[in-house]
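Folded chain entry —
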Amino acid sequence: MKVEALVFDMDGLLLDSERVVQRSWNYAGEKLGYGRIGEHIYHTLGFNVVRREAYFKSVYGEDFPMDKFNELTREKYYGICDKEGIGVKEGARELLIYAKEHGYKVGLATSSREIHAKASLEKVGLWKYFDGGVFGDSVKHAKPDPEIYLKACEAIGTEPVHSIALEDAPAGIRSASAAGMIPVMIPDLDEPDEETRKLLFAQAESLVQFREVLEKSR
């Protein structure tokens, strides 16, 4: 197996942000009278804003105030970021440095909006390691559709078959697998089910462990 590139998801993989998103959803849900709805994050990991809106309206009805919900969640999310910061996942920075030092192309395939993703990664000093990226607001179809990973590989000039996709959620693994990539999962909020495990090339407990596997494979 010839590996030329590593393509990363962001939330829950590089940044410890999913739990902050969950807190912001609880905040917005309570403000809008829907209660603590943060548990829905387990059903929407990997969704972009369009698919997330469709999900909430399927649960709460077409009258669900998505624009106001997004406004409140962003307000709360960035408030937490300013006060507490968003942690970088263990081993993320070291893996990105290792990848660049050893000639791997590095891509990003995140369901987050471009303005949010770039600002988040720049704030913690990680964006400089990437050769390119594709974002949730620049694709028509959300994960598990393969579009975002196909475009991410194209953006960094690599073939999917020679690219490892690093993901923390089953939807992302299905997306990467459908794109013809080498799927590796480092679980965060969600463990892989049996169907997802069948798609995996490997699973690691952390990015630290994955880097050790990558080093041994060279």
Q: What stands out?
A: Strands lie at 5-8, 105-110, 132-135, 163-167, 182-185, 202-203. The radius of gyration is 17 Å. Residues 22 and 39 are 7 Å apart (CA to CA).
